Amino acid sequence: MKSYLRFLLIAVCVFTAAGIAYLTIAPNGGAIADKPIYWITVDESEIGHLIEKDLSLSGTSKFEVVESRGGLAIIKLDELGSQYLSGRMHEEYHKCAGFLRHETYEEAQRSIDASLNSNAAAAEFVTYTIDNQSSVVPMLAEAAEPNIRQTITDLSSLFTRRHDQQGGLDGANMILSKWRQLALASGRTDVSVMPYAHLSPTNPDTFLTPQPSIILTINGTAFPDEIIVVGGHQDSIRSGSTTGGAPGADDDASGIASMTETIRVLLAKGFRPKRTLQFIAYAAEEVGLVGSKNIAQNYRAQNKNVIGALQLDMTNYGGNWADIVIITDNTNAAQNQFLRDLVTEYQPTLVVKNDQCGYGCSDHKSWFDQNYPASMPFEAKFSGTSLDGIAAQYNTALHTANDTLTRSNGNANHALKFTKLAISYVGELAKGNIAQPAPNRTPFDFDADGRADISVFRPADGVWHTDASTGGYSASQFGIATDTIVPADYDGDGKTDLAVYRDGVWHIMRSQAGYSAILWGVAGDIPQPQDFDDDGKADIAVFRPSNGVWYVLNSNGGNSIVQFGQQGDEPIAGDFDGDGEADLAVFRDGVWHIKGSANGYTAYQFGIATDTAIAADFDGDGKADSAIFRDGVWYVLRSGGGVTVFQWGVAGDVPAAADYDGDGKADLAVYRGGTWYIYNSSNSSISYRSFGITGDRPAANAFVK
User: Fold this and answer.
1) Residue 34 appears among annotated catalytic residues
2) pLDDT band for position 318 (50/70/90)?
3) Which one of the listed residues 251, 369, 428, 483 is annotated catalytic?
4) Strands, E, within 469-569: which ranges?
């Protein structure tokens, strides 16, 4: 939190529009030394080769080894030297960075120690199983290439995303905005998106890079302290230039795009992981894994339990050697095998092969050095002929102005494979479930076809008469003349069940489980069955007018007693905030008092004391709207804003609003002595039906007050 606040206050200016923070370099730039000196750790043989080649070409070299041990070397460079090294490593070894950048000599030495002493290659950190097909398969079907392609297009439209240029912050802001929009659209409170400022561990007023990493977190439901990381780097670079154009479509807009689509799919399908998921767009990877190294070191210092890290660095340029290439050096063998098994299970037609990329080729190395299990599936054959006699198939446009989507034939088909791998990775490692399609919740729908049915209860003989929209006419004896009808879906199968309330006893004929009688309430209580716990089943509830107390018996056996209201109030529960849980509400002298399960208490004047109050979703947004019926005129206060006034009926009519045409919106309807008058919202048509006799009680009028 300290880092985040310092980032906002020092490193950037922050503007807010529609809830989205915008990051930009502040006028004073932020506290970064003018000519910082860095200590670089690099593969000893690779830097030796570069020195020899530089000497042979020009008689001099920018590189001088300060220390070497265990096959690794330390050299000392400034920013331009780091830029030069990045270009040379790419030219000779096709690496994004190929080295790690450190602030001090001592830190570089510790980095070598960490690399040499890491046991992250062979250790088994978790037991890998593949048995969550019920959640993973639907999520894979949701993944779509056009979404990935669009993110690549958007990010690569920036002139550069270099970490120390404004374009680097523009790219960070674009990712922040995209991920926050996905989080906001999901409506979930367990998802957060934050920029992560990279402050020097030795000088807290100095930034390692002005570019922040971006982290989206989905909290685990069962094991929140166990963290799974999916990462990719957001910055781009131009070889030989600190200011040249670097669209970076493949390197690494493609990885960020695969991550973004993975996030979208998880949220769209309502996936609730048991373990915490973090998606990280790393800053400044191209100049020495700066962002990922800082995060991984901080996580280790905080003793965070990262049980898996997956790196997506370049996913959209494929060769003909393999569909997915598993990098086997500086990665965890057991997790690598897990990735192979995931492909076999979920993408069995793909070819998977192994390769190596050497020291510091991407951000997985940062996690590996901190003894976390890391893996990197790559887009194509990485290494050259020295390993197996087969030439590398890397994208030759990397780190140039030509790294655009056209290099991948203008599509993201290859990146879709990695998106699906990431989805299966988090789905099987985090476990958890997607949201199951909710059963039909249309009130007064007795045949579960999504349309309310015309139905009446005849007090004279206790018979329910129903004209189901698909099942035809039926008549069922269930009740007596003095009963209060309480039709609702008590078993969650999408069908409204016959039910009556009689002197504190609920008599329910469930369509699945049959008859039951439940004592809940006393004579004089007003029944208000609603789904108060969002499990798809109506809960038994009563409002006691004498004391303004609600008594709720949940379908899972739990219960609650809530004081909300006062003597004489009319109860009118409904889901006014659209979170799936019905809210307690009362109508009092024209004022609606609502205890929202998501939004808290609200009260507003809408109507007069003698009005008939109705709660129904008239605009199809999933939220109950407040409506009143007065002498044949309907007044509807829509949750999305605005009031509709409509003449439909005459004084003395019985209002019976419900979704009779199945468009998700309650239709205006009245019952008049055996005749139904319905105004269909789907096409503004009018329906007249003779069904019932004078004195019958329409089912859809059961909870009108």
Assistant:
1) no
2) confident
3) 251
4) 472-477, 484-485, 498-502, 505-510, 514-519, 526-527, 540-544, 549-553, 559-563
